[in-house]
Design brief:
The complex is a heterotrimer of chains A (189), B (100) and C (391). Chain A is of the alpha/beta class and 189 residues long. Helices cover 39% and strands 21% of the residues of chain A. Chain A has a single domain (4-187), classed as 3-Layer(aba) Sandwich (Pyruvate-ferredoxin Oxidoreductase, domain 3). In chain A, α6 (152-166) packs antiparallel against α7 (173-187). The longest helix of chain A has 15 residues, at 152-166. Classes of the chains: A alpha/beta (189), B alpha+beta (100), C alpha/beta (391). Chain A: This is Pyruvate synthase.
């Protein structure tokens, strides 16, 4: 039986939700899986709600529609909960991960969802490790931890390579990004 | 390229015509005899001609034939009878008359 | 050796362009163009290609520059989308009728208005009768493969026509997917060097684009039409050679589970993938369904399609464009025209779907197959249908 994991990302233009979905696709790809990472383009304005998607499977992926019944939902900006139906179609045995300083119990009250609820304070982790609010690295770690689509070890190994490549001109930020990843794996709850 | 494709005739078939109307041969204007478009023609009076060659300069069809820096005659296969040469002649060496 | 990579459709096409290393790329670099020229200009800046990149002031100029470069004997390519293709319109015909190979990546997007930049097939379907070969692909892999093959198809001595390589905007162009890439040397060997039968430059320069009056224009058009007919065979020959290189098989169209199919769908581009998933599901339920995905829309494989549809009872023809004929959209028209005299009571409805980026789900596609079975059972059906529009 094919294993297919479908993930929906909610963020705001400029926060890196699309980039995070592409990063997740990239690390899963490196483990030999079939991947799709794609944004749902809207008006493309800074701050406007945006949606991005991932399909990750051990079989070739053919469906080219958006994802309506995701296994996991990742909310990169908690203020979206008030304006966007982030849990729409989310499978009961799936999970939602929210970037917030609140606890899962607190955030659950704001969601219409009975399944698993996880939170991570990506802003705090990002600011403490990277010195600014770049939530996508922590959110990537959180979705890997919660979904288990790839192992934590594979994530860390692959991301170190990716960061070294991406930040070839400023290698000093690589350990900081790695710290952000590791802390996020610990702190998602 | 086949020689027949070089030759665009009024009867060429779609199989033999050049693709996209490509013209493969340079200087082929000579092959089109435009002399029969003429209703007026220039007449040269050699005795009045100073061989200043200005008629040769202005002729748009290259129909005034020079030889050793002098006018030799007219190429009536290609002269369309525009009369520019007769207009510019300051010596009365060129008349413009009705073609008969 | 093939390289396994994850790329977006636009990246994949830009990589193919890098591997081909054309003589000239002329493109208008911003919206409504695509990311393809942007990626390619980076390759130029990095010295990874020796191509001349001409940044022009409009799409009309982009195609004009491509025409000039191709007339000079160069291998030439560009990319565009939506209204950008529309602005090339006049020059599309010049390229095709002058018999000048140019490869154009068309990222399929809606034409305005109302203003819309999302996926449908309005742009390339509008250009379907411009004399260009049109090859369509389902995903990034096919966009990449088709782009490489397009060079050989367009430049073949029996063809000498420009080629559009079409793939879906956003769905394919901006989504990252798995694909296999050839080695640079393999692509280089596969495409070889362009041998132009005529050129503005070189030892035997010619004149191109003359005034063509009634005594000869018709003959030129007749010859151009023959080149398009010749392309069918060449597309298959190039595909066979490409299969030897990569193992990936291509034809004029792809048949998916068509053996013994009673209800079929004819479709173009990315939604074919979604539909294959539906075919698998319905087959598992014992329903005899199949799918044909058109790859070559120009030339249109009419006889081959008739043979492939011989045994089906009902076939839904899917158009991601409304032709506004009031009768049938472009693909529907072609399929019905092909089936003329061979339809024998076949049920051939058309469905217009996905306009302006309207998402198409597995449920939408399944509803079409269900319509077909209902039509087979009752004999009653609508010919002209809209899938996914609010009534």
């Amino acid at each position: 039986m094919a294993k297919l994991v479908e993930i929906r990302w909610h963020g705001r233009g400029g926060q890196g939700a699309k980039t995070a979905s592409l990063l997740l696709a990239e690390v899963a790809f490196k483990t030999g899986m079939y991947i799709q990472g794609f944004p749902e383009y809207g008006p493309e304005r800074m701050g406007a709600p945006i949606t991005a998607y991932n399909r990750i499977s051990d079989e070739p992926l053919r469906v080219h529609s958006n994802i309506y019944e995701p296994d996991y939902v990742v909310v990169v900006d908690e203020t979206l909960i008030k304006s966007v139906p982030v849990t729409a179609g989310l499978k009961k045995d799936g999970a939602i991960i929210v970037n917030t300083s609140k606890t899962p119990e607190e955030i659950r009250k704001e969601l219409k969802y009975d399944g698993r609820v996880y939170t991570i304070d990506a802003r705090k982790i990002s600011e403490e490790t990277l010195g600014a609010n770049f939530p996508n690295t922590p959110m990537l770690a959180a979705v890997v931890k919660v979904s288990g689509v790839i192992s934590e070890e594979v994530l860390l190994n692959n991301m170190e390579d990716s960061f070294k490549h991406k930040f070839a001109n400023k290698p000093q930020v690589v350990p900081k990004n790695m710290e952000a990843l590791k802390r996020s794996l610990q702190e998602v709850k | 390229m086949k020689e027949k494709m070089m030759k665009i005739t009024p009867n060429v078939s779609w199989k033999d015509i050049t693709p996209g109307g490509v013209i493969t041969k340079s200087g082929n204007a000579e092959e089109f005899k435009t002399g029969d478009w003429r209703s007026m023609k220039p007449v040269w009076h050699e005795d009045k001609c100073k061989h200043c060659m200005l008629c040769w300069v202005v002729c748009p069809d290259n129909s005034i034939i020079p030889e050793d820096g002098k006018i030799k005659g007219f190429d009536f296969d290609h002269c369309k009878g525009c009369g520019v040469c007769t207009k510019q002649c300051k010596f009365g060496a060129l008349d413009f008359v009705v073609e008969e | 050796m093939a390289k396994r990579v994850s790329l977006s459709g636009n990246e994949a096409v830009a990589y193919a362009m890098r591997q081909i290393n054309p003589d000239v790329v002329a493109a208008f670099p911003i919206t409504p163009s695509t990311e393809v020229p942007q990626y390619f200009s980076q390759f130029v800046a990095n010295g990874q290609v020796t191509s001349e990149f001409v940044a022009v002031e409009s799409e009309h100029s982009a195609m004009s520059a491509c025409i000039g470069a191709s007339a000079a004997g160069g291998r030439v390519m560009t990319a565009t989308s939506s209204c950008g293709l529309a602005l090339m319109w006049e020059m599309l015909y010049i390229a095709a009728s002058s018999r000048l190979p140019v490869v154009l990546a068309v990222v399929n997007r809606a034409l305005s208005g109302p203003i819309n930049i999302h996926n449908d097939h309005s742009d390339s379907m509008g250009a379907r009768d411009s004399g260009w070969i049109q090859i369509y692909g389902e995903n990034a892999q096919e966009a990449y493969d088709n782009f490489i093959q397009a060079i050989r198809i367009g430049e073949h001595p029996d063809v000498q026509l420009p080629v559009m390589v079409c793939y879906d905007g956003f769905i394919t162009s901006h989504a990252v997917e798995n694909l296999e890439m050839c080695e640079d040397a393999e692509v280089k060997a596969f495409v070889g060097e362009r041998v132009a039968p005529y050129s503005l430059l070189g030892e035997n320069p010619v004149a191109m684009g003359p005034l063509d009056l009634p005594p000869h224009y018709f003959e030129h058009k007749r010859q151009q039409a023959e080149a398009m007919r010749n392309a069918k065979k060449v597309i298959l020959e190039v595909a066979a050679e490409f299969e030897k290189l990569t193992g990936r098989k291509y034809g004029l169209f792809e048949e998916y589970k068509m053996e013994d199919a009673e209800a079929a769908m004819v479709i173009i581009n990315s939604t074919a993938g979604t539909a294959k998933k539906v075919v698998d599901k319905m087959r598992a339920e014992g329903k005899k369904v199949g799918l044909i995905k058109i790859r070559s829309f120009r030339p249109f494989p009419a006889e081959e399609l008739v043979a492939a549809l011989k045994n089906v009872k009902a076939v839904a023809v899917m158009d991601k464009v409304d032709g506004f004929t009031g009768v049938a959209a472009p693909l529907h028209n072609e399929v019905r025209s092909a089936l003329y005299g061979a339809a024998e009571g076949k049920i051939v409805p058309g469905y217009i779907y996905g306009l302006g980026g309207r998402d198409v789900t597995v449920n939408d596609i399944e509803s079409v197959y269900n319509d077909l079975f209902k039509a087979i059972e009752t004999g009653k059906y609508e010919v002209y249908n809209y899938l996914g529009v609010r009534e």
